[in-house]
């Protein structure tokens, strides 16, 4: 995966630079690149876009047509660049890196919160308040439920993980007992 992120980084940075200087704003670009990343993640689309029978010109016309809304000229140019360099299928990784750059620019970050049980809005807000103090930035929560955690939560912000789940505590206990 490190190789994909290395290849995608210059594209994400170039896209971010173009979006930052555009009147439409970062939110519009983020929405467009996210939609295109979702489209390029569909297995049928991936298969079609890597079909050697399709020329680059055909790909340049076909792929943008899959989007729900019309693409800006800048986004169309970006898609053409990706097609020309055979990097269209990197869109999901480019979109993820673009979102990280956008969040960093806005002074925020995405927080992946995984809980063993469903959390109420009040619990999420209380948790976010504490996490924002700990991480020193505004957090955008993405909450999921994973019953295998048994209890507690796991929070991932960037490359930092805060794991207070029962599953993690049991794993630490097992490691301690094995090492003794």
From TrEMBL:
Main subcellular location: membrane
TM ranges: none
Keywords: ATP synthesis, Cell membrane, CF(1), Hydrogen ion transport, Ion transport, Membrane, Transport
Membrane topology field: Peripheral membrane protein
One Gene Ontology molecular-function label: proton-transporting ATP synthase activity, rotational mechanism
Gene Ontology annotations for the cellular component aspect, listed alphabetically: plasma membrane; proton-transporting ATP synthase complex
Protein's cellular compartments: Cell membrane; Membrane
Keyword presence, Membrane: yes
Pfam families: OSCP
Family stated for the protein in its record: Belongs to the ATPase delta chain family.
HAMAP family: ATP_synth_delta_bact
Summary of the function given for this chain in its UniProt record: F(1)F(0) ATP synthase produces ATP from ADP in the presence of a proton or sodium gradient. F-type ATPases consist of two structural domains, F(1) containing the extramembraneous catalytic core and F(0) containing the membrane proton channel, linked together by a central stalk and a peripheral stalk. During catalysis, ATP synthesis in the catalytic domain of F(1) is coupled via a rotary mechanism of the central stalk subunits to proton translocation.
Protein name: ATP synthase subunit delta
Organism: Advenella faeciporci
Gene (name only): atpH
């Amino acid at each position: 995966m490190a190789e994909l992120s290395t290849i995608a980084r210059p594209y994400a940075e170039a896209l971010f630079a173009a979006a930052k200087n555009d009147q439409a704003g970062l939110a519009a670009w983020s929405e467009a690149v996210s939609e295109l990343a979702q489209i390029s993640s569909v297995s049928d689309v991936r298969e079609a876009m890597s079909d050697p029978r399709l020329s680059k010109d055909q790909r340049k016309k076909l792929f943008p047509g899959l989007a729900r809304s019309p693409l800006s000229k800048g986004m169309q140019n970006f898609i053409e660049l990706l097609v020309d360099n055979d990097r269209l299928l990197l869109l999901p990784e480019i979109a993820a890196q673009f979102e990280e750059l956008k969040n960093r620019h806005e002074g925020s970050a995405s927080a992946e919160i995984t809980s063993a049980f469903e959390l109420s809005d009040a619990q999420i807000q209380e948790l976010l308040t504490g996490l924002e103090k700990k991480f020193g930035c505004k957090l955008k929560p993405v909450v999921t439920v994973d019953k295998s955690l048994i209890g507690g939560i796991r929070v991932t912000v960037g490359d930092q993980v805060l794991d207070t789940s029962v599953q993690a505590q049991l794993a630490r206990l097992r490691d301690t007992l094995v090492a003794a």
